[in-house]
């Protein structure tokens, strides 16, 4: 079941923190970098993030996606799945849910260049590589975007 999370509640923020630490630890090992900010994020930082969180429940919180809406652009900040729930389609369902809730919006997201599973997921949903940056020397991230395209008829008006 997918539902909006109230990350301002301490209990929910703790669940988010616990899950994301496990998920981002796997990414840290994958990319060879343990400085991912979400690994050391406090409960208070999660509560005050300004993001909207959507959770996937399978008896427990098994994954979540968070974003900030900036006008017609949805900026995806996190997508995390508990390692015990990997390869069950949870990230795909969360992303599909988010895209479905904003059919007229554009999307932007970044992930580590070496995070092939995340890159493949975004590319499967039509995200295109827009650029890259280095948050730390030697650590490369890719920026993806998905822009809503208008039907040809809309240009004839």
Write a compact overview of the structure shown:
The protein is α+β, with helices and mostly antiparallel strands. It has helices at 10-31, 43-47, 90-101, 116-124; strands at 2-5, 52-57, 61-70, 73-81, 106-112, 128-136, 139-146.
Poorly predicted runs are none
What structural category arises from helix and sheet content?
A: alpha+beta
Strand content is 25-35%
Biggest beta sheet summary: 7 strands, mixed
Would you give the CATH topology? Aminopeptidase
How would you write the strand order of the largest sheet? Answer: 1-2-3-4-5-7-6
Number of helices: 4
GO molecular function: acyltransferase activity, transferring groups other than amino-acyl groups
Domain N-acetyltransferase: 1-151
Keywords: Coiled coil, Ribonucleoprotein, Ribosomal protein
Protein name: Ribosomal protein S18 acetylase RimI-like enzyme
What this model shows, in words?
The chain is 31% helix and 34% strand. With 157 residues, the protein is α+β, with helices and mostly antiparallel strands. A 7-stranded mixed β-sheet has the order 1-2-3-4-5-7-6. The chain has 4 helices and 7 strands. Strand 6 and strand 7 form a beta hairpin. The longest helix is centred in the N-terminal third of the chain and has 22 residues, at 10-31.
